[in-house]
Structures are given as C-alpha cells and as structure tokens.
Design a protein that fits this description.
- This protein is an alpha+beta fold and 149 residues long.
- It has one domain.
- The protein is 31% helix and 30% strand.
- The protein contains 4 helices and 6 strands.
- It has a 6-stranded antiparallel β-sheet with strand order 1-6-2-3-4-5.
- Strand 4 and strand 5 form a beta hairpin.
- It is globular and about 45 Å long.
C-alpha cells in the first residue's frame, strides 16, 4: 500500500533538482533486449516513455555493441508537444548522423527494437561472439548531448 501511494504521488511530482534524478518517474524506464516481455507490455512501456519525453527534459537512448564498436540511437523531442523528434545515431566507425522524424515513427521504431528476440549485437555476419545485451533507457537530454561516444 505504501509503495502504491508513493507511485501515485510520485507520478504527479517533478524533481526540483538533479539530485532527485533517481526518484524521477522516468528513472526506471530501462529495458534490455532481448527480453521476455509480451508485445502488449512493450507497447505500454513505449507509450510511457513517450509521455516522459513529452513532459520532461529527457530523451531515449538505445545502445548496442558488436565487434565494430558501440552504436547509439537517441530520440529527443524538438517541440513542446513532442510531435517531432531528433533522431541521433552514432556508430563508432561513422560518427554521428541526425534526422528529424515523427512521433509515430519513434513509437514504431521503439516497439520494433524492444520486441526483438535477438539483440542487434547478435544479428551479425561474423563469428566473433558479443555477449552484451542491447540496452534501452531514458536519460536527461543534457547527458545525451554531452555523450561523445
């Protein structure tokens, strides 16, 4: 009961400073791929992420690794209603590439990525094993922009 009250109370409160980041509603929005979640659960998770991207100064990041290095895909709202997003993609071999995409495209891409039965790391044409799972998380926008790799 106490945890239910905290969840309900916390869902309407926003942190006043960065020291409260770990208690922010979005701080637990993290998922590894592959995972054992049902498709409906992933859709609900993505909808929750989109709400946070709309109302908080946060972005979403999907990270995968393979023998060629780390790849990052970030989604950051570019307007107050989060109908348009900046998609930033980083590949260690190619650097950063940015495009603008719609909310619907972000939703569809996240559902697709988070529903995969294999990580991007295991989807390869080489024999060198990569053990790391793909990781999706929500982070402060300033942290995403400060990331160099």
């Amino acid at each position: 009961m106490h945890s239910e009250q905290q969840q309900h109370a916390g869902s309407n409160e926003r942190p006043l400073n960065d020291s409260k980041q770990s208690h922010s509603p979005w701080s637990n929005l993290r998922l590894t791929v592959p995972n054992d979640r049902h498709h409906t659960s992933i859709v609900a998770f993505v909808e929750c992420v989109l709400v946070e991207l709309t109302h908080e100064d946060v972005g979403a990041e999907y990270v995968s690794s393979n023998v060629w290095g780390t790849r990052r895909t970030q989604f950051i709202a570019t307007d107050d209603v989060a109908e348009t997003f900046r998609k930033r993609h980083y590949d260690e071999r190619l650097g950063w590439h940015e495009t603008t995409i719609s909310r619907e495209s972000v939703r569809n891409e996240l559902i697709d990525r988070l529903s995969r039965t294999d990580s991007v790391a295991t989807d390869r044409s080489h024999s060198v094993p990569v053990e790391a799972r793909d990781v999706f998380s929500v982070k402060p926008v300033r942290q995403l922009y400060n990331r160099q790799s």
